[in-house]
Amino acid sequence: MNELRSSNKMEHNQLLLVEEILSASKRKSERGRRYNKEWVMLCMFFHIRSLSGYAYLRNNNILPLPCTRTIRKYLSIINTSCGFDPKFFEIFKMNLSTKPEMQKPGLLLLDEMSVRESISVNSKTVTYSGLIDFGPKDEDLTSLPKPTSLNDKATHALVFMFQPLAGNYTQPIAVIAQWPVKGVTLAQLIIKATILLEKSGAYVHGFIADGAQTNRKVWNEYGLRGKLNNCQNYVEHFVDPERKFFAFSDTPHLLKNIRNRFYNKKELEVSVT
Q1: 179: closest CA among 136, 146, 143?
Q2: Which H or E run contains 135?
Q3: What is the C-alpha to C-alpha distance for residues 41 and 68, in angstroms, rounded to an integer?
Q4: Rounded CA separation 229/223 (Å)
Q5: From CA 125, how far away is CA 103, in angstroms rounded?
Q6: Can you state the angle between helices 183-199 and 86-97, rounded to 10 degrees?
Q7: How far apart are alpha carbons 117 and 111 in whole angstroms?
Q8: Nearest residue to 108 via CA among 200, 5, 232
Q9: Whole-number Å distance between alpha carbons of 244 and 237
Q10: Of 61, 163, 210, 269, whose CB neighbour count within 10 A is largest?
């Protein structure tokens, strides 16, 4: 194994697999096995992606995978609260460190969806679920709304995701349970998400959002505008003043707006002002 590590001819994840296979071959019983933390993380991702594939490889002893009960125990201890989880960004930093440099630049995606209003009691934390929740107290974001009564039910879920420009995956990084927020609050959340991603090793070159009213207010907060003869689609980057932070409108929504305009008005007007 030392020769394989020093040769640099195998990827890190491949070395983990070889180590787990060798470790499994030395044990007489499958009970009481101890797995590498990184291997457990890979197994969790695989289990989430394909339950049937995971079961096939394990039941036929093709790979030394932990049993489903073990995976569920690990998943149950993951913090699923709203907001930005520092432990997640530590893990994401480890994941990015194994990727080539060309897969680290990307964009921040955000989208909002309606959710059903309901309140339940979380027996693990003895707290209410279903109220507006922007995550744990943040010294950088002291003006975020907080629930003051059971009437402050969340009506929307705001999801933040990271999309690498040269990768084939999309990584959710946070979810916010909220009612429609002000543009200035959303602008602050975008800055926070960008800074956390940059500290994790990613290079965030901008954000993408649809044309909802709150998202348009974010453009105003940043001083952005999309006028034909007076376009400003970037600001100084929040982390590196030598870089630019761009704003993009979601292309499918733009095409949908054009389609609706043609359908309703039978013509498309272009304003040059």
Answers
A1: 146
A2: none
A3: 13
A4: 16
A5: 37
A6: 50
A7: 19
A8: 200
A9: 5
A10: 210
Residue 101 CB partners (closer than 8 Å, separation 6+): none
Q: Where are the beta strands (DSSP E) in 101-229?
A: 105-114, 120-122, 127-129, 156-164, 171-178, 203-209, 225-227
Q: If you average pLDDT over residues 115-133, what whole number do you get?
A: 81
Amino acid identity for residue 203 in this structure: Y
Q: Please give the span between the terminal C-alpha atoms of the chain, in angstroms, as a whole number.
A: 67
Q: Where are the alpha helices (DSSP H) in the chain?
A: 2-7, 12-25, 37-49, 51-59, 68-76, 86-97, 183-199, 213-222, 251-265
Tokens, residue 156: 């929307």
130/120 Cα distance (integer angstroms):
7
227, two tokens: 């006028």
The token pair that represents 155 in the structure block: 């009506």
Angle subtended at Cα 117 by Cα 146 and Cα 79, rounded to the nearest 5 degrees: 60
The two beta strands, 156-164 and 127-129, are unpaired
Q: What is the pLDDT of residues 24-48, one digit of tens each?
A: 888 777 777 788 888 888 898 889 8
Q: What are the CA-CA distances from residue 252 to residues 11, 218, 256 (Å)?
A: 37, 19, 6
DSSP class of 125: T
User: Is it the case that residue 123 has pLDDT exceeding 80?
Assistant: no
Give the phi and the psi of residue 13 in degrees, each rounded to 5. -65, -30
User: Tokens standing for 31?
Assistant: 């009970």
Residue type, 144: L
Cβ–Cβ contacts within 10 Å for residue 265, how many? 9
